[in-house]
Structure formats: C-alpha cells, structure tokens
Amino acid sequence: MIGNLPYVAVVIFIGLGIYTLMFKKNLIKIAIGVVLIENGVNLFLITLGYRKGAIAPIYTQAPSGQAMVLPTPQALTLTSIVIGIATTALILSVAMMIYKHYGTLDTDQVRRLKG
Amino acid sequence: MKEMSRIVKTVTNFVYGFIIIFGFYIIAHGHLTPGGGFQGGAVVGSAFALLLVSYGSLNSREFLKKDILSLFEGFGLILFIVLGFSGLGITFFYNFLANSGGWFGDTAIIGVNPGNMNTGGVIPLMNIAVGLEVLSAFGVIVLTMASGAEFTKKKENS
Amino acid sequence: MNLSNHIPILIIAIPLLAAFLVPLIGRINKKATGIFTTLALSVSLILTIALAVKILTVGPQVYVFGATSPSLTLPSGLKFPIRIMFQIDAMSIFMGLITAVISFLGAIYSITFMEQHSGLDKYYSLLLLLTVGMFGMEFTGDIFNFFVFLEIASIAAVALIAFRGVNLGEPAEAGFKYMVVSSISALMVLFVAGIFYGQYGLLNFAALASVIKYSQLDMIALGLLVPVLAMKAGAVPMHMWTPDAYSEAPAPISMILVAASQASLYALFRVVFSLYNISLNTLTVGWIIIIFGLLSMFIGVTMAIIQKDIKRLMAYHAVSQTGYMLLGVGVGLAVLANPEALKDYGITAMEGGIFHIMNHAMYKGLLFLTAGALFFRTGTRDLNKMGGLAHYMKYTTIFFIIGAAAIAGLPPFNGFASKLLIYESVYRFNPLLSIIAMVVSILTLASFVKVFHSAFLGPKLPQFKEVKETPRSMVFAMAVLSCIIIFFGLFPDLIVKNLVHPAVMSLIEQFKYTGTVLGGM
Q1: How far apart are CA B22 and CA B45, in angstroms?
Q2: Do A79 and C155 make contact, defined as CB atoms within 8 angstroms?
Q3: CB C133 within 8 A of CB C149
Q4: What pLDDT is recorded for position C330?
Q5: What total number of domains does chain C contain?
Q6: CB pairs under 8 A between A and C
C-alpha cells in the first residue's frame, strides 16, 4: 500500500495541473499549470524504476553486493527536465511579449483572435 | 531591476566564484558521479542569475555580455555535433575514444570501483560541450528576460 | 567508410549542423544565412530522394546510433533491443519526401519574403531545427525518441509563430495557445512511454509490437495516445489552435507547419497500425477515427466559408482536409480484421487517405504561399480590403487558380485523384460517409470561389496602383509546387503504384515492421 503513494502523488499533480490550465485566468498561472503537469509526469517516470531496498545506480565507491534501481527511467527523466526548462523559458517569454502589447495578463482580455 | 543592498553584494562577491567552480566540477566528473553536462551548466547558470539579481540589470551589463555568451553557446553546440560526426567511421555518435588508450581512453572497470577519471571516451568531452552550451544559454535567457522587463517598466512609467 | 550506409543520419545531421552554424555566419554577413540554409536543405532533399530509391528497391532500413547492432547481447545469450535507432520503411520515407520538399521550398521563399525583418539568423536557425524535428518524428524507431523530436519541432514552431510578435500583439497570443496545446500533448506522449516501459520494460516500437497484449493498461495508453496525436494534427474537437497559429505565422512557416501537423498524423497511424495492429478492437477504434474525420471535414469547411482573413480561411480548410485523411485511413482500420473486405476496398481507402497527405501538403502549401505573396505586396490579409489584384499580379493569380482547383478536387489536378479513391472505397463501407465527403468538397469549392472573387477579380483599385509582381524566388517556389500538382494530377497511377501502395502495405503488415529489427537478431 505504501509503495503506491508516489503514484497517488502523480495523479494529484496531473489533476491539479489540468485544473489550473482549465480554470485559471492569469497567463502566468497557466504556465505554472503546464509546469505542474510536467513535474507529475517526471515523478511517474522515476517511480517506475524503483526496486525495494536498492540504492542509486552509481558504481563509483558503491557498497558491494547491493541491488540497484533501474537507471533508464532516470535518463528519460533527465531529458524531460531539460525539455521542460526550454518549454518554460519560451512560454514565459511569450507571456512577456503579450504583456508588452496588450497591457494585461488576463485571458478574458487577450482575445483579439476570434471566430 | 534595481540593485540590492551592500550586504547582499558583499556575500555575492564571496560566493559566486565557488558556485562556478562547483558547477565545473559537476560537469567534468559527469561520467563517474551524478551530474554531467546539463546539471553542471544549470549550476553555473544559477551563479549568473545570482549576479544579475544582486547587482541589478543595468550594472551587470558591464560584466555579463550577451554577445560573448551567445558566441560560447554556438561553440558548445558545434563541438557537440562535431564529436558526433567524428564517430562516423562505424556509426553516428559512436564512442571512438573508449578503451583505446588515447585521451580518456583507459578501460573502465565494470562493477564497484573507486572511479578513474581517465575513462569514458567521448562522454566527458560531450559533457563539457553540453555544459558550455547550457551555461551560456542560461545566461542569455536570464539577461534577455531582464532587459525585456526593463523595457516594459519604462513604457509603463512613461 | 561507406557513406551510403549513413544516409539516414546525414539527412538529419546536416540541417542540425547548419542550424548551429547559422548564428556564426550571421555575425559575418546577414544575407548569407538564407542561402546557406537553402544549400543545407537542398543536400537533405537529394539525400532523401536517394534513400527513397534505396528503400523502395531493397527494403526497410535500420540505422543504429552508437553501436553496431540493434540489440545488446548479455553473457547469458539473452538479446535486448535497447539501442536508439532509426527504422525507415516505405511509409516513413513517404512522409520524409514531403518534409524535404516543403522545407526546401519554404527556405527559398523566405529569402525574399523575410528580407526586411531583423533577427534573421535566429529565423533560419529555427527553420532548420523545425525541419530536423519533423524528420526525426518520421524516421524514429522508438517512442521516447519520438517524444524528444516532437518537443524540438514544437518549440521551434512556437518561436517561429511568435516571430512577428516583436512589433505586433496577435502572433504572441497565437504562439501562447500553440505552446500550451503542444506541451500537453507531448507530456501525454511521455506518460504513455512511461506506461509502456513500466509494463514491458521496452521502448522500441518493433519490440513492443511483438510483445503487446492489449491489457487494461494498453487500452488506457491507446485512449491517451489517439486523441493527443489527433490534437497535434488539428482534428476537431481539438482544433482551436489551428486558425490562430496558421494565420499569424509568416507564410513560409505556415506551409512548413502543415507538414509538421502531418508528421503527428503519421505517428497516429504508426501507433495504431504497427504497434497495436489487430490486437485492438479495430471496428471501434476505426469508427472513432472516422468520427474525428467527419467532424473535422464538416466543421472545418463551415467555419471557413464565413472568414474574412484569407489565411484564417485557409487554416480552417487545412482542418477540413485533415478530416479526409482521417476518414480514409479510419475506414481502412475498421476493416483490418476482415481480410476480404480489406482487399476489396480497405486498401484503396487507405491509399486514398495517404495519397491525400502528400497532395494536401502540396496544394495547401501553394495556397499559403500565394496568400503570403498577396500580403507581401499589399500589406493586408483582409479580403474586404483587397480587390482587382489580377490586373497587377498575373503569376500569383494563375498559381492561386491551380491551388484552388486542386483543393476542390477538379479533374486534371491531384486533389481529384485522391478524393476519388476515398469516395469510391468509403461508399462501399457506408454510403452516408461518402455523401458527406462530397458535400464538403462542394462547399470547399464555394469558399475558394469567394476568395478568388474578392481578392483577384474586380476593377483596379486606386490604393494598389504601385503593386508589382512578386520577387523571383517566391515565384520559383510557387512554380515548383504547381508543376508537382499538375504532374501528380496527370499521372496519379505512377505515384500510387510506386510510392503510396508500398507505404500502405508497410502499415498493414506488422510482421515486416517487427521482423526488420527483431528478425535480424
């Protein structure tokens, strides 16, 4: 049961992220919603590799005879975090550009493209 | 953004060198300990962000220049791709330096070992390329956002 | 070193190297960036054609990164297919040809279209990165590599859509919407990669296809993957980003974005056909894709008729034509488990859908380029303000007529060939679908007659007195597309037999896909 708690946390993260994306009206909060979903997916990837009673998958000066957790999901998560930084930087820069031209960050007023 | 008080500036003067050195340590030992190109580059980038925040965006333009950081970013990227091309004898991204006795060419011991920095082949070189690229990219992002915020504030106040 | 073995990676690595060299070249000479980009993309185009000839004669190719064989042999004799690799078969190279031609023409068009903008070195660098992302999406052999290239393409596309946002506000708004939508879809693809890895311990498409069991978790993965990839392709009801993104991007980028949306459509077909194949309930999933297709066709064209902005109208038509592709391939999927229906009309329906992908890229690209030419000379995109431009811009008028006739499905152009294949085979499956498709085609013709009348016909207007014909590089790009449209329209049988039919068979026969990687172990 207690091994399932990280998966519950993943569902809470993704759920909160989707709620923020759909119902909040400030552009920065929408960007935070995207970051929340990304953190949830990263947590999911890392939790997949866990094996009970194992240590980090590093050979340098490790105690011998120990099981190690799976290293592949850690590589996948690292790539995903790097991509997440590029996404966050870009989405915040575009939000800054919107503020420069529209004067507001409220999505009810950033609506020149309609129909 | 405005500069911060004298206490913050003095502590920054002490600390930013250590942060940059620690970042380079993480980049260089990426094939033995946790870390590598991106993580070390992010740490050095946070040192740049510390300098920018504590000295203010107008003053920090004297020692953090966007063109030079952009140039380093280009060098890091080109070094990475050239290292990929140089393994083209067998296949792209082939580790042609591993176990060969040259640069970074000692054979790596599989299993628990105290860690030999001379192993790894092309991997530490790629770590350095990626680290160089990431630290310049962080510097450019933070400087561009700061100058963009300045421009908007000027327009607001006028 | 035998270079011909390395063609798959050179197609991607040369634009990537060029993308990193362009900022350095931009410091020396601003004008050389456009010419350098065109050179790199032309090398890519030549290599893609060479690879297409090799694949269509020899067979599917596998290219492994960083090792000599696609799987790692443990000392106990167990073989793990763990290497990152490119797996290129007939369907992948079909999409690769589209990408190569469209990006090359986009770069040529941009040389004169974007001349007055600043920051051009970043524009060309991003264009090359978008091309790299699209090629990677089409050639890759495992699902995490697909996620990485999908994100590369999305980030480059957002920066290009918001490129004019330095001076105007609307491109930034369009870029924000597109960024949120593509972030969500890419993160859900990563989530599905996590589900597959946790269940089977494999990330490779071919290896997964040989062990997949369609358990509850696989159903959840399919249920996440189909809507999310259809969202990136612009299917209704997830199409809200398409009109904003296509209309606010610069015209050559709109053309390349059409090819990028089709790369996501390719991924949808690859997942449903080569990963799951008949292990899923093909009738249900086929009908879901058919419903997406019908909604896209109808809502796309009805929203397009009422538009006043010429590029927004063409963007809604892009949504509508994506519906045709989904309809054709959906019918093929629905009869996949039924061998005589498959041979009877299923394969023809899929041929129509997949041929329509290439035709759509060509004529929609041509239409976006003519809209860009109108914007370049008159400075406006509003149809109410334009008029009588056929007197001044003769070449653009001819290219527009060719593009509009092709999209409406008139006979000597290529739209007719693929639409006829779809109508005839979908009629055998369910007559109502075919009738809806024909009505949509008529409405498409109506809306383009409206555009032609407002923009080109009519008396000479005084405010357009100094409008000249478009510069030569733009005319060259539009002329090449027109020649391809006329050639495909006159000889469709040549294309269907040599390019489309091998692509369809490589999607249907899953064992060939897995056998290329696992059989050679």
Answers
A1: 12
A2: no
A3: yes
A4: 92
A5: 1
A6: 91
What is the percentage of chain B residues whose pLDDT exceeds 90?
49
Pairing assessment for the beta strands C79-80 and C72-73 based on DSSP bridges: antiparallel
Reported as a single tens digit per residue, the pLDDT across C407-453 is 998 888 888 989 999 999 999 888 999 999 999 999 999 999 999 99
Whether residue A101 and residue C180 make contact (CB cut-off 8 A), yes or no, is: no
The span from the CA of C403 to the CA of C447, in Å, is: 13
Shortest distance, CA B7 to any CA of chain A (angstroms): 30
pTM, to two decimals: 0.95
Q: Kindly list the residues from chain B whose CB atom is less than 8 angstroms away from the CB atom of residue A60.
A: 32-33, 113-115
Distance between CA atoms of C277 and C293, rounded to whole angstroms?
20
Contact B115 A60 (CB under 8 A): yes
Q: Does residue C176 form part of some domain?
A: no
Best of C20, C27, C85 to substitute, by most chain B Cβ atoms within 10 angstroms, is C20
> Cβ C179–A94 below 8 Å, yes or no?
yes
Per residue in C259-288, pLDDT tens? Answer: 999 999 999 999 998 888 777 788 889 999
Q: Would B20 be classed as within a structural domain?
A: yes
Q: Total structural domains in chain B?
A: 1
Residue of chain A whose Cα is closest to the Cα of C245: A113
Query: Quick check: is B1 in a domain?
Result: no
Owning domain of residue B27? 6-110+118-157
CB A100 within 8 A of CB B153: no
Residue C36: closest CA among C121, C134, C100: C121
Q: Does some domain include residue C124?
A: no
Spell out which residues of chain B touch residue C24, defining contact as CB-CB under 8 Å: 71, 74, 78
Question: Rg of the Cα trace of chain B?
Answer: 19
Beta bridge partners of C204: C142
Closest-CA residue of B relative to C1 is: B89
Q: Which domain holds residue C307?
A: 281-511
The span from the CA of C261 to the CA of C365, in Å, is 13
Q: Label residue A57 by pLDDT band (50, 70, 90).
A: confident
Evaluate whether residue C325 is within a structural domain: yes
Average pLDDT over every residue of C159-168: 90
Residues 6+ away with beta carbon under 8 Å from B39: B26, B27, B30
Domains of chain A: 2-52+68-102 (1.10.287.3510)
Look at B77 and C63 and tell me if their CB atoms are within 8 Å: no
Inter-residue contact A30 to A24 (CB < 8 Å): yes
Per-residue pLDDT at C1 exceeds 60: no
> Coil, strand, or helix at residue B113?
strand
Put simply, whether B5 touches C (Cβ < 8 Å) is: no
B152 found inside a domain: yes
Query: Which residues, numbered 74 to 93 in chain B, qualify as contacts with chain C under a Cβ-Cβ cut-off of 8 Å?
Result: 74, 77-78, 81, 84-85, 87-93
Q: What share of chain C is helix, strand, coil (3-state, %, to 5)?
A: 80, 5, 20
**Within-domain flag for C260:** no
Is the pLDDT at C521 greater than 50, yes or no? no
- Cα separation, C375 vs C370, in Å, equals 9
Work out whether the CA dihedral A7, A9, A11, A14 comes out positive or negative. negative
Residue C521 contacts B, CB cutoff 8 Å: no
Yes or no, beta carbons of C151 and A87 under 8 Å apart: yes
Phi, psi of B2, rounded to the nearest 5 degrees: -80, 160
**Are C54 and C3 contacting, i.e. CB atoms less than 8 angstroms apart?**
no
Start-to-end Cα distance in chain A: 50
- Contacts B–C by Cβ distance under 8 A: 41
How far apart, in whole angstroms, are the C-alpha atoms of residue C333 and residue C507?
10
